[in-house]
């Protein structure tokens, strides 16, 4: 049995037994917040519980390392849509200690791509086109500095409402303890 067939079998029972009813909500976040966090599996249930969130309370965006690495990429677009169209009034960027992006070996990832069939010559083409794979795949060495950088990108984005608080936090992936790196209220109050 494949993972897909196992999921679909469970899903059929889930829908038939109307287990979805306990999760019913709207597309608008009840607590009017949007969270950018890491895709780390340890945070899937832990982070919402540690933040006292239930289904429907927040928009949650996930990416490797909770990094906003391009001001006009998909992460920033999602944050802006959450604010301007989906009634989010605050942004929380929540990274975590012991993140895989802090120890990522870009050479190893490229080697794994080649092992899975990506042509080595493609990397030369990408480099010629101005794409530095090592830079693009690179994570960070200091999680608190990474959070600060992402907060700065969001807060200083030309399309961002400067009155929206942009908070930066770091979570402990074992306990859920949150450390404040940037309290967005002070900056938002100045605007």
- Profile the largest sheet: 5 strands, mixed
Number of helices: 8
Provide the CATH top-level class of the largest domain.
Answer: Alpha Beta
CATH fold-type name of the largest domain: Beta-carbonic Anhydrase, Chain A
CATH architecture of the largest domain: 3-Layer(aba) Sandwich
Percentage beta strand = 15-25%
Q: What's the N-to-C terminus distance?
A: 57 Å
Strand order in the sheet with the most strands: 2-1-3-4-5
Helix and strand string, N-terminal first? HEHEHEHHHHEEH
* Principal-axis shape: globular
Whole-number tally of structural domains: 2
Can you tell me the CATH superfamily of the largest domain? Carbonic anhydrase
Mean pLDDT: 96
Low-pLDDT stretches are: none
How would you classify the helix and strand content by structural class?
alpha/beta
How many runs of DSSP E, i.e. beta strands? 5
Using the CA coordinates, give the radius of gyration. 19 Å
Helix content: 25-40%
Write up this protein.
The mean pLDDT is about 95. This protein has helices at about 5-15, 45-50, 75-85, 105-115, 120-130, 135, 145-155, 185-190, and strands at about 35-40, 60-65, 90-95, 165-170, 180. The chain has about 190 residues and is α/β, with parallel strands linked by helices. A five-stranded mixed β-sheet has the order 2-1-3-4-5, with helices on both faces. The protein is globular, with a radius of gyration of 19 Å. Strand 4 and strand 5 form a beta hairpin.
